[in-house]
Design brief:
Blueprint lengths: L1 H5 L5 H31 L5 H4 L5 H37 L4 H16 L2 H15 L5 H31 L2 H9 L4 H31 L11 H12 L2 H31 L21
């Protein structure tokens, strides 16, 4: 009934017009792709000599070990730290004490506004000036991790705050009524239920962190983009190398999404989109015979 009110079913003319639009758009897309493939063919981009370095075991190992593995390490480390950062500052923004709430608000808003690349460069030169790390590669690695941590942590802080506020107030009120302290209510009642609401945003932020590691090439951090740049600078096969790098990013992000979705289904316990109203609601009685 609601669907009929919000959306009128298209008539025969509208259906025919939409089919024409779809056909024209599909033909246009096919024409653009055909033009791109033709231009690549004319400029010799499909020649074996351009693809040979990417089929050589030495460079495959460099892309997968020095490139992809380091990228995954940076992304995984930064996400772990970002979750901790987000929980601390997200809960801090919910504090009843102004001396806690306002500094947390300032930190979150600051790091959300500063570009990730700028933070990577800032941390890199801060480490270099401080002289705390003798190895430049190690300094670049931790500069990328630090920048991704504070940026994604600031975003996750807002996600955690919104997730906690989305839990029905009756949950907290019931916990207070049985004598629970505020820390117990937050850690035992609100956060576990809020995680179910926050999972899609957390998954999305994991993908963002993985992709943003590619910016580490600006400070020389070992990763997929840095290794790829060294390959195409040596063999002048930019298109081929970028295509392989993009394919690796797509495959890894897709696998990450599948794993995160599986975890979400395990935690939520059902395979339909999670709604806020489902949090804290009654669960079906499955004990009936």
């Amino acid at each position: 009934m609601a669907a009929a009110v919000l959306f009128d079913a298209p008539g025969p003319k509208t259906v025919r017009r939409h089919r024409i639009y779809t056909l024209v758009a599909s033909l246009s897309l096919i024409a653009v792709l055909a033009f791109i493939v033709l231009r690549l063919q004319q400029t010799g981009q499909f020649a074996y000599v351009k693809w040979e370095p990417l089929l050589t075991p030495k460079y495959i190992e460099a892309l997968l070990v020095d490139g992809l593995l380091k990228t995954l390490q940076m992304a995984f480390t930064s996400i772990i730290f970002a979750v901790v950062f987000g929980v601390v500052f997200g809960v801090g923004k919910l504090s009843e004490h102004a001396w806690v709430r306002w500094p947390c608000w300032a930190v979150v808003e600051f790091f959300r506004a500063v570009p990730v690349l700028l933070m990577m460069i800032f941390f890199f030169y801060e480490v270099k000036v401080a002289g705390g790390v003798s190895n430049g590669t190690t300094g670049a690695y931790w500069s990328v991790v630090a920048a991704l941590t504070v940026y994604n942590g600031a975003v996750l802080a807002e996600v955690f705050r919104a997730g906690v506020l989305a839990v029905p107030r009756g949950q907290a009120e019931a916990a207070y009524a049985i004598g629970m302290r505020k820390t117990q209510v937050m850690s035992l009642i609100l956060l576990p239920q809020a995680v179910k609401i926050m999972l899609p945003a957390i998954i999305s932020q994991c993908v963002v962190a993985l992709k943003d590691t590619s910016l580490g090439y600006a400070i020389g951090a070992i990763g997929l983009s840095t290794v790829g740049r060294s390959i195409y600078n040596g063999f002048q096969n930019q298109i081929q190398t970028v295509f392989v790098m993009a394919l690796l990013y797509i495959v890894v992000n897709y696998l990450l999404t599948l794993v995160a979705t599986w975890v979400q289904h395990k935690l939520v316990g059902q395979r339909k989109p999670l709604e806020v109203g489902m949090v804290g609601g009654p669960t079906p009685d499955r004990t009936l015979v």
